[in-house]
Design goal:
The structure holds two protein chains of two kinds. By secondary structure, chain A is of the alpha+beta class. Helices cover about 50% and strands about 15% of the residues of chain A. Chain A has a six-stranded mixed beta barrel. In chain A, β2 and β3 form a beta hairpin. Chain A starts with a helix and ends with a helix. In chain B, about 40% of the residues are buried. Chain B is of the alpha+beta class. Chain B folds into two domains: about 170 residues, no CATH class; about 190 residues, no CATH class. Chain B contains eleven helices and twelve strands. The model of chain B has no long low-confidence stretch (mean pLDDT about 90). Helices cover about 50% and strands about 20% of the residues of chain B.
């Protein structure tokens, strides 16, 4: 019976063509604005590492001064003083301190020097953040501890320098020093770049070109390529002054074997803070905390208010479109009153008429959904112009394709409930008499 | 006017009227909020920097070898650029307005005691005349003399400025009771700076919301780090040509540094406000579609009502109603329905705004933004109803004699 009603529905699309076209168009633009904004919203709030986002933590050791207002968030970064101690304590399954570095790579063979971005990290970094290797691997634990001149390259950067060959073991002039390539990553682009959300507005951009051991970067006095905040009187001059000061410019991540160990780790962190307090540091250190990936993304406002705002207003627009469709369906079905009267007189029950017209509404919705798919791509193209962040995530997934059509059908069926109910209450006798 | 019969007819077919009113109400609620957000964003994006923006660009290089003779490099670059035709003025600068990265340091008025509230400022420094190069308006005092410029080697000494030029906004914030500011004292940590001049306006690189965007200070300083960054002011119309030529010439001059960026201030402005402007356009698009959808809904429903009442219209015409009575009937009917929707919509708009304010960073809607939306919807309703009402008026009296 459904197939028959479906065929009737398709045929009825051609009746009242102007009214039908208006309904299809209304639903299509309504669904398209909602789904394109929703695609961006979902992509920006997505989980970049579902397998371990609840056991991967950023550790904030708060070294803000004593007069910090109560409501303020703990410091975004931590100091090397604290990162060093946390690394030495060695708690958790894996751990890495990190900070952004930048500088010049000088390729061999007359190619121009190029400015690149990098991260100074610990060897655990790659396994912690599931960075896949194409060639080679991370540097050894010994190199990690003594700050060996080893480097891991991103796939794009390795290809630019060495072509498709495996460059493991080759030398590279970098940051005014000599490095040995220990590995090359496979293409890797977490969305967002959650391990370093604090670097400004490049959260959905390309990953860094090189990764070097953090102790190597510190020994070579590679300055932080990012925000540095200093409390109090500021550091002594020079790089060692920065490292021995309360200036914060690092992140510290820890991976626990199990999400349940969070409480135990938090206690060890509190113990560390107490120890430092006895030494006269960390006046408000009790505000230190650990946040998992999702919590950290929330604190860092990865999902901007503008994205939420435009999604809400687009949803409001869809609501208006649905109300509009109710009115238009009402007009269309009222015009069919005579036909309904005949069908009822020939023995169709109210329930059958209800089904038939609800299917008809659904067919209108499906047509609107298919047209809306095209509009959604247009909407995403427009949204991508907002910023590079949005451009990086404004892509349609198969799930969103299905959801777009489904939303249009559901919207049309909901809009069709009232008109259909009115249609099946047509009294056959009156209709037959007036004809 | 025959409002009473229109009302009683409306009350007998409530559904359609209710749908139109609901649509108008929702439209007004969204429209009122969106118009204000659009206006707010465009106003933010149009804020002046206080500079001769159209003729300025910022160019940066990064020296990567040890042992670069920084003062010689800077002086050679400056001399080279000044000799180029069309260059009006050049200055070294650690940052430039609208470029979204730079130095942010906090200062205290009068004393460096911990009890004095500190204020974050955009911290510009230059060894040349930044006021002249940027085209700022100096409203009080003077700019620095060349012998006030300090040369700092960052690996052995900290920033320790003694003179400063500040913006009027910052001056008023630090010294709310004063009327002139030259001679006032500001502390940067332990460094004691004397205010020698005040500029009317100078935006920070971040152009934050509110007053924070105009809390900037300039100090006369040259830092001996190997980066080289210059703000260049050109004669009108020469910007594009000089951006290319300066970049080529400075890049060719040395091989111990890499070119980082060349950005004109108009480009920097477009980048800074790209998200605001495109959100505004997104909302304008939604508003346009919204009005179209609502208008089509009104046309559809009005047509339905006219079609349902052809016979009654014929009867009215037959017993003496003129065409314009019929026209007026439908327009008044539409006006009543729209007005009901608008009344509900006004309340809805305020409620929606309150919810947005509490949930997101959205400014509170000033109520005087709503009458515009009200008038727009009234006009839209009447225009949309005009077509169907006009067709109704043209129904001949003979219709009364035909069966439906």
């Amino acid at each position: 019976m459904f197939a028959y009603y479906f065929k009737l529905g398709l045929r009825s699309l051609r009746r009242n063509p102007a009214l039908t076209a208006l309904m299809v168009l209304t639903l299509a633009v309504g669904v398209a604005t909602s789904m394109s904004t929703l695609t961006v919203l979902r992509a920006m709030s997505g989980d970049p590492v579902p397998s371990k986002s609840d056991r991967l933590f950023v550790v904030q050791v708060d070294n803000s001064p004593a007069d910090t207002a109560a409501g303020e968030e703990p410091a975004n970064h931590l100091s090397w003083l604290d990162a060093k101690e946390l690394l030495a304590a060695g708690d958790g399954l894996r751990r890495s301190a990190m900070y952004a570095v930048g500088g010049v790579a000088e390729p061999e063979g007359g190619e121009a020097s190029q400015l690149i971005n990098g991260m100074a990290v610990n060897a655990d970094f790659f396994a912690m953040f599931e960075a896949p290797f194409l060639h080679g691997g991370a540097w050894s634990a010994e190199d990690d501890a003594r700050g060996g001149a080893q480097v891991v390259l991103s796939s794009a950067f390795a290809e630019r320098l060495f072509g498709k060959d495996d460059p493991t073991g080759r030398r590279l002039r970098l940051f005014d020093g000599e490095y040995v390539v220990s590995g090359v990553l496979a293409p890797w682009r977490p969305m967002p770049k959650y391990y370093w959300l604090v670097g400004g507005n490049n959260r959905f951009g390309d990953t860094d070109e090189v990764f070097i051991p953090i102790r190597n970067a510190l020994a070579n006095e590679s300055g932080p390529n990012g925000n540095v905040s200093c409390n109090g009187d500021g550091p002594e001059p020079g790089f060692s002054g920065l490292l021995n000061s309360e200036c914060t410019f690092m992140q510290y991540w820890v991976e626990l074997a199990d999400a349940g160990e969070r409480g135990a780790y938090r206690e060890r962190l509190a113990g560390y803070v107490d120890g430092q307090k006895k030494l006269g540091r960390l006046p408000v250190g009790e505000r230190s905390r650990l946040l998992d990936v999702r919590e950290w993304m929330q604190v860092q406002d990865v999902l901007g208010d503008d994205t939420i705002l435009q999604t809400l207003l687009a949803a409001g627009f869809l609501l208006v479109c649905v109300v509009n469709t109710v009115g238009l369906l009402l007009a269309k079905f009222t015009a069919h009153a005579g036909e309904i009267g005949v069908r009822r007189a020939l023995g169709a029950t109210q329930g059958q008429v209800f089904q038939q017209y609800l299917v008809q509404a659904g067919v209108v919705g499906a047509a609107g959904g298919l047209l809306g798919l095209g509009f959604t791509f247009g909407g995403l193209w427009l949204l991508a112009r907002q910023s590079e962040e949005v451009a990086a995530v404004a892509h349609m997934s198969p799930a969103m394709l299905l959801a777009t059509v489904a939303t249009a059908i559901v919207a049309a069926v909901l809009a069709g409930l009232l008109p259909t109910w009115r249609a099946c209450r047509v009294v056959p006798a009156i209709q037959l008499k007036t004809q | 006017m025959e409002i009473r019969p229109i009302l009683s007819a409306l009350l007998r077919s409530k559904t359609g009227a209710f749908l139109i009113a609901a649509q108008v109400a929702l439209t007004l609620a969204i429209l009122g909020n969106a118009i204000y957000i659009v206006q707010d964003r465009l106003a933010i994006a149009a804020r002046p920097t206080g500079t001769d923006e159209a003729n300025l660009f910022y160019i940066r290089f990064y020296g990567f070898r040890d042992g670069i003779d920084v003062p010689a490099m800077l002086d050679a670059d400056l001399a080279m650029m000044r000799a180029m035709p069309g260059v009006k003025s050049v200055a070294t600068a650690n940052m430039a307005p609208l470029t979204q990265s730079g130095w942010n340091l906090s200062v205290q008025p009068n004393s460096n005691d911990d009890s004095v509230e500190s204020t974050n400022t955009a911290f510009y420094y230059s060894s040349e005349n930044l006021v002249e190069t940027l085209g700022l308006e100096l409203t009080e005092g003077r700019y620095f003399t060349p012998d006030e410029v300090q040369v700092i080697e960052p690996s052995v000494a900290n920033v320790d400025p003694r003179h400063t030029v500040i913006t009027r906004t910052l001056a008023r914030h630090l010294f709310p009771d004063a009327s002139t500011y030259v001679g006032k004292v500001i502390y940067l940590g332990d460094a004691r700076m004397e205010v020698v001049g005040v500029v009317e306006r100078m935006q920070s690189p971040w152009a934050q919301l509110g007053e924070a965007a105009e809390r900037s200070i300039i100090v006369p300083m040259r830092q001996l780090d190997p980066s080289a960054a210059y703000i260049v002011r050109t004669e009108p119309g020469q910007l594009d040509r000089l951006m290319r030529e300066v970049e080529d010439k400075l890049t060719a001059a040395r091989d111990d540094r890499v070119h980082l960026s060349t950005t004109s201030l108009p480009e920097a402005r477009a980048n800074r406000y790209r998200a605001d402007r495109s959100l505004a356009w997104m909302l304008v698009t939604i508003m346009g579609l919204l009005l179209m959808v609502t208008a089509s809904g009104i046309v559809g429903m009005a047509s339905l009502w006219v079609n349902q009442r052809r016979k009654q219209i014929g009867v009215r015409r037959a017993i003496g109603a003129r065409q314009r009575d019929i026209l007026r009937y439908f327009l008044v009917e539409n006006f009543l329905v729209t007005s009901f929707g608008i009344a509900v919509g006004l309340a809805l708009a305020v409620a929606l705004n309150q919810w947005l304010v509490s949930a997101l960073e959205v400014p509170r809607l000033p109520l005087h933004y709503l009458p515009g939306g009200v008038v727009a919807l009234w006009a839209l309703g009447l225009l949309a109803a005009l077509g169907p009402a006009w067709r109704a008026a043209r129904i001949p009296p003979a219709e009364a004699t035909r069966s439906v």
